C-alpha cells in the first residue's frame, strides 16, 4: 500500500464501515437471534438461519433485519475510519516510511494488532447496544418497562442500571478478538491482493476497474472468513452459520468500497 494521507484514509475507512453494515447487519441480526433464543431454557425456537430470517421478515418486515443498525452505522463508520487510519499510519511508521510493493508481514501484522486494540474501546459499547436492540424484536419476551426506544435510550438505561462498566461489558474479550481479527484480516487482505494483482497488471485499461473490484471482493472476503474461522475457537457455535455466511460479502463490500474510495480521492497506490 502506498503512502496515503490520514484524511483520505479516514473518509475511505468510514465509507467501508457503512458498506459493512449495509451488507452484513441482516446476517448479524439472525446470528444474535439464534444465540438468544436457541440457547435458552425453552429449547430451540428457530430451526435454522433461514427459518429465523423468514420469521423476522414475516413478523417485522425488512426493518426487523436492520434492528439496532443505527448504533452499528455510527459505531462501524467511526471504528472503520479509525481502524484503517491507525493501520495505515502504523504500518508506514514500522516500514520507516519506505513503500514496498511486496507486503511486509513484520509491519502488517503488528499494525493490525494495534488498530484492533484501539477500536475495541469503541466497538464494545456499540456492539452491546446493537445486540440488546436486536434481541428486543417484536417476539421478545422482555416486559415493556425493559424495552428500549432507541440506541441512546438503551445506552443510558444500561449505564443507569449497571454503571459505566456495564457499557463496556465483555471489553477484554472484544479487545482480544479485534486485535487478532484485524491482524489476520489485514495480513490476508494484503497478501491476497498482492498475489492476485501481479498476473493481472498487464490487463487493458478498460478492464482495470473491474479487475480491482474483483480483487477487492476476493481479498476482502477471504480476509473476513479468516477472521471468523478464528472466532469459532471461542466455542460459541450457535449462530456460527450466519456469521460465516456474513463474513465474505460484508468484508468484501468493505474492501471494495475502501479501494474505490481511495481511487476516487485521487490516492495512488502501488
From TrEMBL:
Cited SUPFAM superfamilies: Mitochondrial carrier (SSF103506)
Gene3D superfamilies reported for this sequence: Mitochondrial carrier domain
Membrane topology: Multi-pass membrane protein
Lineage top rank: taxon: Eukaryota
Protein name: Uncharacterized protein
Record bears the keyword Repeat: yes
Membrane spanning residue stretches: 65-87, 107-124
Alphabetical UniProt keywords: Membrane, Mitochondrion, Repeat, Transmembrane, Transmembrane helix, Transport
InterPro entries found in the cross-reference section: MCP_dom_sf, MCP_transmembrane, Mitochondrial_Carrier
Subcellular location: Mitochondrion membrane
Ranges in coiled-coil conformation: none
Residue windows of the Solcar repeats: 4-93, 103-195
Record family assignment: Belongs to the mitochondrial carrier (TC 2.A.29) family.
Amino acid at each position: 500500500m502506498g503512502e496515503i494521507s490520514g484524511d483520505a484514509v479516514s473518509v475511505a475507512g468510514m465509507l467501508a464501515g457503512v458498506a459493512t453494515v449495509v451488507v452484513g447487519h441482516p446476517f448479524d441480526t439472525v446470528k444474535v437471534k439464534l444465540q438468544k433464543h436457541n440457547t435458552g431454557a425453552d429449547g430451540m425456537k428457530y430451526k435454522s438461519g433461514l427459518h429465523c430470517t423468514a420469521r423476522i421478515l414475516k413478523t417485522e418486515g425488512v426493518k426487523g433485519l436492520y434492528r439496532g443498525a443505527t448504533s452499528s452505522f455510527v459505531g462501524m463508520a467511526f471504528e472503520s475510519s479509525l481502524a484503517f487510519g491507525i493501520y495505515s499510519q502504523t504500518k508506514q511508521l514500522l516500514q520507516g516510511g519506505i513503500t514496498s510493493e511486496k507486503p511486509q508481514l513484520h509491519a502488517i501484522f503488528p499494525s493490525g494488532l494495534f488498530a484492533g486494540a484501539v477500536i475495541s474501546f469503541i466497538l464494545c459499547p456499540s456492539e452491546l447496544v446493537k445486540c440488546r436492540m436486536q434481541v428486543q424484536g417484536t417476539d421478545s419476551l422482555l416486559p415493556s418497562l425493559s424495552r428500549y426506544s432507541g440506541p441512546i435510550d438503551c445506552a443510558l438505561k444500561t449505564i443507569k442500571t449497571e454503571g459505566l462498566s456495564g457499557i463496556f461489558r465483555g471489553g477484554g474479550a472484544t479487545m482480544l478478538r479485534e486485535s487478532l481479527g484485524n491482524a489476520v484480516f489485514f495480513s490476508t487482505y494484503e497478501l491476497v491482493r498482492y498475489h492476485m494483482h501481479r498476473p493481472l497488471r498487464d490487463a487493458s485499461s478498460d478492464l482495470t476497474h473491474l479487475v480491482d473490484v474483483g480483487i477487492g471482493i476476493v481479498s476482502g472476503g477471504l480476509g473476513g472468513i479468516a477472521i471468523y474461522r478464528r472466532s469459532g475457537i471461542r466455542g460459541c457455535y450457535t449462530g456460527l452459520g450466519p456469521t460465516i455466511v456474513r463474513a465474505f460479502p460484508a468484508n468484501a463490500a468493505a474492501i471494495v468500497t475502501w479501494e474505490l474510495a481511495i481511487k476516487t480521492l485521487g490516492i495512488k497506490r502501488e
